[in-house]
Amino acid sequence: MGESVSVLIDQKKVEERIAELGAEISRDYAGRSLHMICILKGGVMFMCELAKHVTIPMTMDFMCCSSYGGGTVSKGIVKIVKDLDEPIEGRDVLIVEDIIDTGRTLSHLFKILEQRKPASLKLCTLLDKPERRVVDDVNVDYTGFQVEDEFVVGYGLDYDQRYRNLPYIGVIHFDD
Ligand code: IMP
Ligand code: MG
Predict the structure, then answer these.
(1) How distant, in Å, are the alpha carbons of 27, 124, 170 from that of 99?
(2) pLDDT, mean of residues 136-152
(3) pLDDT of residue 176
(4) Taking 60 as the threshold, does the pLDDT of residue 51 lie above it?
(5) How is the beta sheet containing 152-153 ordered, strand by strand?
(6) pLDDT digits (tens, 9 = 90+) for 105-119
(7) How far is 138 from 116, CA to CA, in rounded Å?
(8) How many beta carbons lie within 10 A of that of residue 55, not counting itself?
(9) How far is the CA of 127 from the centre of ligand 2 (A)?
(10) CA-CA to 74 of 20 to 30 Å: which in 66, 68, 84, 129?
């Protein structure tokens, strides 16, 4: 059984789009400071690249969540594996995520973070699969790219913890 990955969005396109998002975010938050929260592990490469293009004062924190059960479909019950280091009360918070699929993870996470009373709470995702959404309460403020219902890897996204290092977004194929 073999796997192969084909390029869906090449590195240049990914990084140009991230630069645009960084500029847009910097304009939108002008005069304020931004607290960016990276959702580990998938959001890490996106967060690093995005942060390079944010020109307003900013801070970073990291959170690691896991949904119960394995496989490629999330169940929406989110367990906090690593919580934030700092309080977010009164701060302008931007969640940085790799991909919104069913939306269950973010729907749950939003509720948890809103209880901590940030001044604002917005969501930035590298990829969005709108066709797959099963919740209606996830509002994405910044999207890198919309993708079809295919399993994508690279730029932080994994299949079985692998392929996160690819500098592009790829689609995984299985041949047996
Ligand atoms: P959701 O709760 O269904 O929105 O799940 C979102 C999470 O599932 C993401 O943060 C990813 O970790 C994972 N995920 C969903 N689709 C993909 C994919 O195509 N490739 C890699 N991971 C994915
Ligand atoms: Mg993830």
Answers:
(1) 23, 9, 13
(2) 96
(3) 72
(4) yes
(5) 2-9, 169-175, 152-153
(6) 999 999 999 999 999
(7) 18
(8) 13
(9) 11
(10) 84
- CA 32 to centroid of ligand 2, rounded, Å: 28
Exactly one of 10, 101, 136, 160 is catalytic; name it: 101
**For residues 119 and 92, is the Cβ–Cβ distance under 8 A?**
yes
* Token representation of residue 46: 């996106």
Q: Which ligand is nearest to the CA of 44?
A: 2
Q: Specify the ligand 1 atom closest to the Cα of 39.
A: 10
CB 3 within 8 A of CB 119: no
C-alpha distance from residue 27 to each of 20, 34, 95, 168 (Å) = 11, 12, 17, 26
Percent helix / strand / coil, the chain, rounded to 5: 25, 40, 40
Asked if residue 67 has pLDDT above 70, the reply is yes
